[in-house]
Amino acid sequence: MSPQLLHRVGAGALEWLAANRTHFRARTDASTSALEIGERFKPIGELAVIGKVLFREGVAGSQQSAIIRKLLDYAWREVLDGGELLAWLQRREPLSPIPLELYVPFQELGYRNQEVEGRARLARGLTSWTALEMAPNRRLGLARVEIRAGLPPSIEVAEAARRTWLGRTPEPWTAVYHIAYDVTHTVFHLTDWGEHPEALPTDIADYLELWLPVWIEDWASVEHWDLLGELLVVDACLPRPTLDPAAWQLYAAAQQPDGAMPVQRTLPPGDPADTFDLAYHPTLVAAFASVMATSRAMTALTVPQP
Length: 306
Prior knowledge:
Elements: H1 3-19, H2 34-57, H3 62-79, H4 84-92, H5 98-108, H6 114-124, H7 127-131, H8 136-148, H9 157-162, H10 177-190, H11 202-221, H12 225-237, H13 245-254, H14 272-302
Protein name: DUF6895 domain-containing protein
Organism: Streptomyces gossypii
Domain DUF6895: 11-290
């Protein structure tokens, strides 16, 4: 697989994100529900995760590294008000895991807010924190976030993983739309967003190596670029990634000239302010997939051939 094509997808995605950074917003007011707040904060947390991956893998050029650092500075200072909006949400919803989930990737990149950290420790000490009911995949992700924050996990990672859909390695044809996203995020959580492919349990890795190519082909055939991008990341998280050339060619061709990636098929015409909510997630995923695949492709170039 051509590292140039892989890199070009990520470079275009970052340029679009930078050009549209003012649309990352976390509007809050007294009438806003916790669910609405979480949805508004979600893009910012995802941006921080992608930034961490980009710096960790070290395959982006100096221009892309500068772009993502400026984006992260903007998101932290201007959108999250230096973390004060996360503290505000903690005061309003003391048991919400969202502030901690969003804060940790920023903390890992050097952004700190003492009130957020103190309130997280306080909430984590309550029995009600571990009693919160949530989907197994979400519980796994929270356990990994707690560990990364230096807190005891509310459930052991191995136990949480076995409760997920993927952890049970069920009939592969039942991985419909919403379950497919659970599959991808289970892999992201278990591998710490691709940093530790060896952390995937052997049976899960074997299951994915067998069925992931089928899922990639299926979602590519219906031109669902958002999910295809996440599946391409999963491929790069496996101990033996394939970097499917055909899927990557289709994926790269779907990217818009300005760097935006549609969710499915093409982006509808409209003002960037209107289309941002449709395009930000698949475009972030495109940057993520590009960095991971470029890193794996570069590694493959240095491995001696038999």
